[in-house]
Amino acid sequence: MEGCSKLLDLIPKDREWLLRRDKQRSHGCSEEKGLELRLGPPGGGDEDTGSREREDSILSLGYFSNNSTCGAKRGFKDTVGLPVMAKESSQPCSNKVVDSSEKKAFSPASADTAVPNSSQKRTAPAPVVGWPPIRSFRKNLASSSSSKQALESQNAVPSKVSGEKPVESGRKGLFVKINMDGVPIGRKVDLAAYDSYEKLSIAVDELFRGLLAAQRDSSAGGIQNKQEGEKVITGLLDGSGEYTLVYEDNEGDRVLVGDVPWHMFVSTVKRLRVLKSSELSSLRLGSKQEKIPPLR
Amino acid sequence: MREDRPPPTPSRGGAYSPPPPDQVLENVLEHVLQFLTFRRDRNAAALVCRSWHRAEALTRLELFIGNCYAVAPRRAMERFRRATAVTIKGKPRFADFNLMPPDWGANFTPWVTFMAQCYRALEKLCLKRMFVTDEDLELLASFPSFRELVLICCDGFGTSGLAVVASKCRKLRVLDLIEDEVTDDEIDWISCFPEGETCLESLIFDCVECPIYFEALERLVARSPSLKKLKLNRYVSIVQLYRLMIRAPQLTHLGTGSFSPSEIVAQGDQEPDYSSAFDACRSLVCLSGFREIVPDYLPAIYPVCANLTSLNFSYANISAEQLRSVIRYCHKLQIFWVLDTVCDAGLQAVAATCKDLRELRVFPIDAREDSEAPVSDVGLLAISEGCRKLQSILYFCQRMTNAAVIAMSENCPELVVFRLCIMGRHLPDHVTREPMDEGFGAIVKNCKKLTRLATSGLLTDRAFSYIGQYGKLVRTLSVAFAGDSDTGLKYVLEGCPRLQKLEIRDSPFGDSALRTGLHRYYNMRFLWMSSCRLTRRGCKEIAQQMPHLVVEMINGEEEEVKDDYVDTLYMYRSLDGPRADAPSFVTIL
Q: Could you confirm whether the keyword RNA-binding appears in this record (chain A) (predicted)?
């Protein structure tokens, strides 16, 4: 696993490393500010820099230095799309947003907050295929009306039609493979579990963030707190993140995710890829309607 | 073999010539062997010598195929020529959770085709996780003695197949459809049962998600005097249930359907006396259904509670208080399935009354990782303290402690099945923040009869060292999102001497660990590993070293294998080599 050895080099051994990195990061951050796309008020660094407990998932801001990233926790509403340009790595995330007052962001107290965060119950993580292990007819029990809805779509049982992928089937779901650059193991997502690009983006972040952290943890061989090591993957949909979500449609073309209405996307998508935004940069300037020719 | 020898003919003079001595032995053997019913005993007898092998093959009436691809239909049926009851299992269990693409296989057609030649006298068939078509059912229905069909977690057929079975199987006694996916072909299959008295003993169709024509069902029940088991689907309202119950007071097993009225019942409407209907069912021991329960109707079942040995509330969204009102009467209860809406308090009520409980299953009403599951270590502890005879538990929760699991291991030494599902991945003990190693370790150490274990929560390799070392009788092990390294899997493969079925997902186990099991894969039914660290090369190595192992690599889509990593490995022994019906997304190494 060649990719893994790179990750090993980046595994933080202690907080001190984290502090050191963060200082580098702040330097890098100020250079990058000019390139940032955000929805926040202009001119500001990030206004409220209080460390936030991680209550919601999940899209939060990434930070970057040359070879490390760290995420700060923040609700998705506040700002969107600080460019995340660090190489892949996974480290404990500090809770502080980097701004002009970075130093106080890296006090040990803030790093401490990362620890209890990880042990808090996560809210709204992306659903993983087949987990929890409950058969589909036991889902949707919360109201009988919703189980009746599930019935409608269940009647289109795809199992009798060989080769066809089920679309919008309440029972079987819609699983597409998703691969991320730099992560050797692909995953699967159930598109039927989402109804918007935003939720899908959250799901993708959750899915691969855990994978990166799991790779790191298992290589380290210890019982690391698996939650704290995860770097957030952001900006998947608008090209502002380190990675961008693209998909291959039923004609074999690669398309940026987010262009067409959700239902149309779901009916044509064949597989998903999380690509490095840097590889797509030449196309980002053009209209999003353009299709990306297959890269391989 | 008896068949090959001509029967002893009396000689011309009328004198009787006794059969040759070895035939006497065979006759005696066959008479004796027919008392052997357990598969394991029969398998042992068959290994004694050739004549025992033959005799056993001729006297085996129940054929069990644990993996439909482990043996070709022809080989199985030619050895056991006289079997009249067949059980076949197909897909591995993780297929239930969408971890396997549809159309993977487990087709029943090749089996039934051969049965049509060899097993025309077939009486009973049980299929689990098989793909069964309407045509297959039609062929089955043509077997003249066929009387019992049990389909569990199957798919591929619809109500048209059921209609054929209903109309053509004149001797049908049992039609049990359990957790199947049945397409609605808009055929009123209930009406297809022939007129006149039927010999139906069991009719279970609670999983069939299609409306039925109630009057036909009512007439059917009325003309089925032997009917003991009836499990209705959720399209049967409580009023209709009442009408059926008064026609069938002899029922022992009842699935109540929706247990709610079909329309809004206004206050003051004349409703039947549901309680009296239950009261009339003196033999009722097993109650289930409650698919869309209106809890106001719960008191109707009070009259039968004291006799119940099995109660399935796993679709009933009821509170602790509502449960308490029922469970306090259920002193004889042995099997109890429930939703976690009853909370820890509900489980405490169960623990207080059901001293004879053997099997408990607690399902989540909201099966998501982040849901607020209302049951926890508190409920588990209460159950362990109240239900000392517990043998089997399946428990979904969000919060658990090692202490509660350890307590259960000490309080319930009869445990045979322990399946704990902490729904949030990698969650530790919510009090001590430690991994759940010690809890599961205690289970394998203290529950000496344990044969089935499913793990969850944050687990390190240490947990697996416990399992490997102490899980002496464990046959089935399910692992998800657990372990640190190859060492974990190595512990299991080098320990657990009785391991038969190993299913693992999303755990960091790779080729090196896989290799450590080479000495035992022929003695296992299957190994499933998905989203682990296996490479194609590693799997190929195994395939090359073990020619009788079928090593399937299953990719999610039908595309090329882009990287060397294997999505899903499913491997199993087979007497007849790799299957011929593998779809394109399966690569057999």
A: no
